[in-house]
Each structure stands twice: as C-alpha cells, then as structure tokens.
Amino acid sequence: MGYTSQNWFVNGVIKIKTGLGPFDLLRALKKIESELGRVKTFRWGPRAIDLDILLYGNEEVKTEELQIPHPLLHERQFVLVPLAEIDRNLVHPVLKKTVSELLEPLEDQGVEKL
After folding, report:
1. Are 97 and 91 a contacting pair, CB within 8 Å?
2. Average pLDDT, stretch 41-51?
3. Is 27 part of a structural domain of the chain?
C-alpha cells in the first residue's frame, strides 16, 4: 500500500500496558524510532522502523498530532491480520466492528504470515 518501490518488510502488532497517556506514548515511540535510525523522508517512504498507536483502550483522540484509533486501521490487512492473532473479537471503538468483521470485506493485499 502507498509507496511500493521499496524493500520487503515485516509488520507486527503488540499489545502493551502502559502508564503513559496517548501523547506521552506517542513521544516515547517517536524517540525509539529516532534512536533506531528513522529519518523523515516522504509519506509511506522507506524507513528503518515505523511505530504507530493503533488503539488505546476504547479512547478516541483526533488532533493534528495524533489520531486514535489509527485512521487507516480498518483498511489495512497488514495491520488487521496480526491484530486478529492477538484478539479477533476486539471491537473498533468508532466503527463498532470486531477485527474479524473488519477483515472480511478486504481484498487480498498480499499479506503473508510468518
């Protein structure tokens, strides 16, 4: 999706518990990206690492800096497939559909499980 003239890469999803609020978590993730060599290029361009907040409990955040749930979550098979491995019945707090329901209508986007 997006810019496709780049090397193969792995997408993954993790579930964490944190005492950080959404904006502090975002800042922590951006610091990790920077420490691991991420350099801003262009939208969806090649990068060393990309850390996103997909969901934050049932919270909704909509600012220029941060949108939760991630605004493209429901369109991305490469995000929904690993998210389903964590919890197929997790409900999207805005769309009110489970991860399984969000996956159903998506066309194959070339996602392969490792």
Report:
1. yes
2. 70
3. yes
Q: Can you tell me the distance from the alpha carbon of 91 to that of 16, in angstroms, rounded to the nearest whole number?
A: 17
Confidence (pTM): 0.82
DSSP H helix total and E strand total for the chain: 3, 2
- Looking at residue 14, its amino acid is I
> How many other C-beta atoms can be found within 10 angstroms of the C-beta atom of residue 46?
13
Range of the domain at 53: 22-103
Confidence of residue 3 (pLDDT cuts 50, 70, 90): low
CATH number of the domain enclosing 32: 3.30.70.560
Of the chain, the percentage scoring pLDDT greater than 70 comes to 82
Q: How far apart are CA 21 and CA 47, in angstroms?
A: 26
How far is it, in rounded angstroms, from Cα 109 to Cα 77? 6
Residues serving a catalytic function are 38, 47, 50, 52
Question: Nearest CA to 80 among 8, 13, 9?
Answer: 13
What is the domain count for the chain?
A: 1
- Indicate whether 7 belongs to any domain: no
Residue 17 lies in a domain: no
